[in-house]
Amino acid sequence: xxxxxxxxxxxxxxxxxxxxxxxxxxxxxxxxxxxxxxxxxxxxxxxxxxxxxxxxxxxxxxxxxxxxxxxxxxxxxxxxxxxxxxxxxxxxxxxxxxxxxxxxxxxxxxxxxxxxxxxxxxxxxxxxxxxxxxxxxxxxxxxxxxxxxxxxxxxxxxxxxxxxxxxxxxxxxxxxxxxxxxxxxxxxxxxxxxxxxxxxxxxxxxxxxxxxxxxxxxxxxxxxxxxxxxxxxxxxxxxxxxxxxxxxxxxxxxxxxxxxxxxxxxxxxxxxxxxxxxxxxxxxxxxxx
Length: 289
Ligand code: C2E
Ligand code: MG
Ligand code: MG
Ligand code: MG
Prior knowledge:
Layout: H1 2-5, H2 15-31, E1 40-49, E2 55-66, E3 70-72, H3 74-83, H4 87-107, E4 115-118, H5 121-125, H6 129-140, E5 147-152, H7 153-158, H8 160-171, E6 176-182, H9 189-194, E7 199-202, H10 204-208, H11 214-230, E8 233-236, H12 242-251, E9 255-256, H13 267-274
Parallel strand pairs: 2-4, 4-5, 5-6, 6-7, 7-8, 8-9
Antiparallel strand pairs: 1-2, 1-9, 2-3
């Protein structure tokens, strides 16, 4: 390979490494300004109440519509955005867009009870963050209680005291908090207990084990029991199969999210699917015509 290319700088690198470095640089350059160029998109994944079948909320998940690469998944660009200091800008865009979308759906006749937005550690360390959340709520007119912020165990445990203070401050806006991917990090129950949490999201790796591995099933039961003891609701992630949903229902899980109930989708598609959807909470049901 190097011989045929002649003597140039690239032959000093492993071909794979050079490609990786170059790709990263190109991605970073393109990602700067992606928000400004209007290349970010939000998709929304339904969260379903297991008792009633009603839409309990949605999770906002960002995508990057790159002119050449197509729709880039957050798993590919969020870690990069975090590393190069772009996550606050992207996170702000997500927050504003998510709050505005809730109000837009409502104007279209669909009331989505709650929207969940993922936070990165750099965001909660940003002194401006509290003001940004307040601004997103004020601009949209969305009630704080309908916004849920998702944090991971590693985010909390990096600087537990600071995270606790920040969440307490945000709590004054009325927002709620969920621990994402619960069970995969190394959090201390002593710290978790002190946080103003509302929900534990059971990681999809445990949901995948349902029906396959009794150890995984035992973890699901244990997380639900722990959540109950702490007075928290549970959301199971990555529910792809009906038998997983049934297991979770019997285990007392409150809410489910996963491909079985709907993939992350554009706002218009969520509206189409849930506007006048037959599945409603019994108390919400219209009298029979
Ligand atoms: P997450 O917050 O744990 O989101 C759940 C991920 O699981 C999403 O991947 C979703 O599409 C995927 N998923 C949902 N149901 C199923 C299922 O039934 N089976 C399988 N196999 N997967 C399912 P996605 O959208 O690619 O997002 C990946 C991660 O990127 C998110 O994990 C979150 O950590 C991060 N992320 C996404 N949007 C944002 C954002 O706006 N800000 C930040 N900071 N991170 C974000
Ligand atoms: Mg999440
Ligand atoms: Mg998750
Ligand atoms: Mg995750």
